[in-house]
Write a structure and sequence with these properties.
By secondary structure, this protein is of the alpha/beta class. Helix content is about 35%, strand content about 20%. The chain is built from eleven helices and ten strands.
């Protein structure tokens, strides 16, 4: 037992060292003229663990910190898929999903590439593209695949009341999140592109919020899908507000999207008729490219079939609103989709004509003025199909 504990500690230290070595950058943040790319690794390519057995019925799902929306998405999947399954004589189910706390950044990808019990991860697309371009973990093109694009993740830049614009952060202490996280890597890149030189801190969300309140930090960045439940504990009465991040098309268009926060997203931070501009990035559900004969491949195939088939359940009000941004059939340019996911989508597209007829029957006779918006109507239609599978 002591030997096993010693080996586990050595493994954890090695993995941490790989991420730190790969993403170490000097502080304060680099000047705008310096490279913002992820530094290439000099060590060997990390290998997937095979020495210890992994639970053949449990999908390891790496996500971000417990405060982030991506963790909530993973929990939605875990709890929903756990229900509705036939249980064995001792309560066991055929499929379980285990959310694993990650950093939402490079560590998520490294865990999927190396740990035996991890199969999928939510990660920002631009960050995974960076890792592939710089070969930080070697050539990951054949070792990583995607299941489906997900929602966008917004840049939440919290600032003290005396900070009125992004340029006023020059020379100030700003928290970008744990080193190696999406906030640290991409926040550093964005600030460099926009010519804002800061003194960088790398604290977790709770510590960063405490630092803002005490005045130790001038601003703190959180990269996660809105609305972020963690921010319900923050209000303008704390002397904190959401700082706009301008979308400069010529500097950000290739990798980033414009987005906006509104009162309904954060009623304690944004006035009723006000809005705050920001930027966002796409996220996706990535998976380890298991060989087709491997038992983990078969488990992942079952996971995809179950998730895709039950996808309409995630569109209801009981789940995070970010689910309503997800289009399972959307493609991720430059990446190969997990083969069973591609097959499932192709089979569904074959019945598109029948689906359109069913949708027509659903709205037949409804006065146009009484119809809800398209998104709400589509959710109603999907629920109707669940209740009437033969129609």
């Amino acid at each position: 037992m002591r030997t096993g504990l010693f080996i586990a500690l050595i493994a954890a230290a090695w993995l941490g060292g790989q991420v730190q070595d790969s993403f170490a950058q000097k502080r304060p943040s680099a000047s705008p003229g310096e490279s913002t790319k992820v530094s290439p690794r000099k060590e060997g390519i990390p290998k997937k663990e095979t020495g210890r057995p992994a639970d053949p019925f449990t999908v390891g799902f790496v996500t971000g910190s417990p405060q982030c929306t991506e963790f909530a998405i993973a929990q939605d999947i875990a709890t929903t898929l756990a229900g509705g399954q036939e249980t064995g004589p001792h309560g066991q189910v055929a499929l379980r999903v285990l959310p694993i706390v990650g950093d939402g950044g490079a560590r998520n990808v490294l865990d999927v590439l190396t740990l035996a019990g991890t199969d999928v991860a939510i990660s920002p697309v631009v960050l995974v593209d960076r890792l592939r371009e710089t070969r930080t973990f070697g050539d990951i093109s054949d070792r990583l695949t995607y299941i489906a694009p997900l929602h966008i993740e917004e840049f939440h830049l919290l600032a003290r009341a005396e900070i009125g614009s992004l340029t006023e952060l020059s020379g100030k202490r700003v928290n970008l999140g744990d080193d190696g996280s999406a906030g640290a890597i991409l926040g550093r890149e964005v600030l460099n592109r926009l010519g804002v030189e800061i003194m960088e801190s790398n604290l977790g969300p709770e510590a960063a919020l405490d630092g803002l309140r005490k005045g130790d930090l001038s601003a703190a960045l959180l990269v996660s899908g809105k609305p972020l439940s963690f921010l319900t504990q923050v209000s303008q009465l704390d002397g904190i507000h959401l700082l706009p991040i301008p979308y400069f098309k010529e500097l950000l268009q290739q990798d980033y999207l414009p987005s906006t926060f509104r009162h309904k997203d954060y009623p304690n931070l944004i006035a009723a008729e006000a809005s705050v501009d920001t930027i966002a990035i796409k996220s996706a559900l990535f998976a380890y490219n298991w060989p087709s004969g491997n038992e983990r491949f078969r488990l992942l195939e079952f996971f995809v079939q179950t998730l895709f088939t039950r996808f309409p359940e995630f569109l209801g009000d009981a789940h995070h609103p970010k689910w309503r941004e997800v289009n399972l059939a959307a493609q991720l340019p430059g990446w190969r989709r997990f083969r069973p996911a591609e097959r499932w989508l192709q089979q569904q597209s074959g019945g598109e004509a029948a689906l359109r007829k069913a949708f027509g029957r659903f709205i037949e006779g409804k006065p146009t003025a009484d119809l809800p918006d398209r998104e709400e109507l589509f959710r109603d239609f999907l629920r109707w199909r669940e209740r009437n599978p033969a129609k």
